Amino acid sequence: MQKKLTITINEEVYEGLRTVIGPRKISRFIEDLVRPHVLKNNMYAAYKEMAADKIRETEALEWAEATMGDINDDER
User: Fold this and answer.
1) Which residues form the domain of 52?
2) Residue pair 56/50 in contact by the 8 Å Cβ criterion
3) By 3-state DSSP, what share of the chain in percent is helix, strand and coil, each rounded to 5?
4) Structural domains in the chain (count)
5) 7-60 tens-digit pLDDT
């Protein structure tokens, strides 16, 4: 369920949001920014769900191992 929220921001910030994000995408943008700060339990649940995805975890591990060769071992 969604709730309507009225906020007040500087006109210059609002115009920047409309220009960069788009006029009908501002609510989603703000929600995506705020969500991890107010719903930490959901973030942990999402990480747990991602970790349970064996295919995703296998691909992530393969990627991580493949990038290990990119580490520069030059002495400083």
Assistant:
1) 11-68
2) yes
3) 70, 0, 30
4) 1
5) 999 999 999 999 999 999 999 999 988 887 787 777 677 788 888 889 988 988
